[in-house]
Amino acid sequence: MKKVVGAIIVLVILALVVGGVFLFYNKEQNNKELENAITPLAEDYFDKYMSANTGSNTYTVTLEDLKSANKNGEEYDLSKLNKCSDKTSVDITIDYKTGKVKQTKVKLDC
User: pTM value?
Assistant: First the structure.
């Protein structure tokens, strides 16, 4: 009887671990999709509306900025980000020598 109870407990723990890993993997995949959705939009917004001449090398574009631009005539596809708050942002680091985007860092709030 103790062996049966022990085997059931082991199976339940194993099922929980496998389920947890699966859920974590799916969340990571979803986050990558969201990051891939917002990054090019933020870079385009930066190119159109922000100046790299302010003495800073890191700039922040928020989802709220992109929504505001849409209200003013832009056509950014934000449909994949509809579950994210306006605090979702992309930090864009500029290489002043080339004037190009050097690095982006997405901060999701979904």
Answer: 0.72
